[in-house]
Amino acid sequence: MTSESDRWYDDAAGPVVRPYAMTRGRTSHAAEAKIDLIALVVSETDAGDDTALEDHTLSPEHLDIVERCQVQATSVAELAADLDLPVGVVRVLVGDLLEAEHVHIHKPVPPAELPDESILREVINGLRAL
């Protein structure tokens, strides 16, 4: 029989923390409707600005997201893969950062708003005719 202290430890994986513990039991965020899997997350702070680091309400996972997004814009799906976290957890954490104004989101262009291919071909043909 395992002792109480060994119950939350997996020999192969190390200490196990359930995803809902990282999100304080939340499975969604108010801003989640804005957060698409391919939406790009960009840090609001410059590399020299430690505003996010001074926010004591942020978890280590929040800080990891801010740090990764300072270097370059990163999609929500990439963040989930890089941090080895479920996408739902990353959406909640990004929602927290969005609400605290530590990051902002670049939404993907909906397919309906993309220009029609035939129009682009006509423009190219017109430019070639010049």
Name the descriptors.
two-stranded antiparallel sheet, 130 residues, elongated, 5 strands, 3-stranded antiparallel sheet, alpha+beta
Helix content: 40-55%
How many strands, what sense, and barrel or not for the largest sheet? Answer: 3 strands, antiparallel
Q: Which structural class should the secondary elements be placed in?
A: alpha+beta
Gyration radius, in Å: 20 Å
The strand count comes to: 5
Residue-averaged pLDDT: 76
The shape, in one word, is elongated
**What pattern of helices and strands is seen along the backbone?**
EEHEHHEHHEH
Please give the alpha-carbon distance between the first and last residues.
Answer: 82 Å
| Oligomeric state of shown chains | single chain
Beta strand %:
5-15%
Strands side by side in the biggest sheet: 4-3-5
Total number of helices: 6
